[in-house]
Design goal:
Elements (H helix, E strand, L loop, with lengths): L1 H20 L3 E3 L2 E5 L2 E5 L4 E6 L6 E2 L4 E6 L1 H8 L10 E3 L4 E5 L4 E6 L6 E2 L4 E7 L4 E8 L1 H4 L7 E5 L5 E14 L2 E9 L7 H4 L8 E5 L7 H13 L3
Antiparallel strand pairs: 1-16, 2-12, 3-11, 4-6, 4-10, 5-9, 6-8, 7-8, 9-11, 12-15, 13-14, 13-16, 14-15
Amino acid sequence: MTVGILVVILLVGVFTLIFTQRQAQVVSTSAAIASQDFTVGADYSGTVTSTEVEVGDVVAKGDELFALQSLQLQKDLDDDVMVPDTDAYTISGDGTMTFTSTVDGTVSQLDVREGGFVGSGTAVATIERSGTLFVAAEFTLTPRDYERIQDGADVDLMLPNQVVVPGSVDLVSVETKDGAAAATVRVVSSQLTEGAYNGLVASGTPVEATMHLRDDGILAGPVDTVQDFLRQIGV
């Protein structure tokens, strides 16, 4: 009787180990909604003469953001230095640079104010591009489970209100830490529409991502266990 109980306990332990090793899905250690960000910076230092937007404003490509006047730019123009217009700004003969949005999106950062000084090469604004929301999720995996991530694999994204929206793996990057695979996974979903679910779908919102791994069948666990044992004994 005692031997039978021990056998049952041993079998439960073995199958629990196999199940743990070959789990069909894995939950993120951290995850949040993100977007493609476009940084606005000044090639010339100068004084801000006007601002047309605030943080949170929705802008279209070509909308004015702010303008600054640069003595150095004016000097270069007076010296016949060619300073062409770009998608990000236009140049006036008096040394004024008028900055415009290069994409449709939302102003998420603006570090200028009228009368303030902007240094050359300084990033002063950020535009979150419309229609580019995705989830950046971090996972800690065994090397074997990392190999089971498939392109386009299903990912369940749980919002803070416990609503789950479907997504899929778009891009994976990895580095090894303490023998484990620290994977960063980009997850895309057609339901990640700005402002959806009572405003919860927005850049920066934390979520929980559950990624489904490739199912290698019921014999995969025992085979892996045997292979690991053989490697340990040098066979």
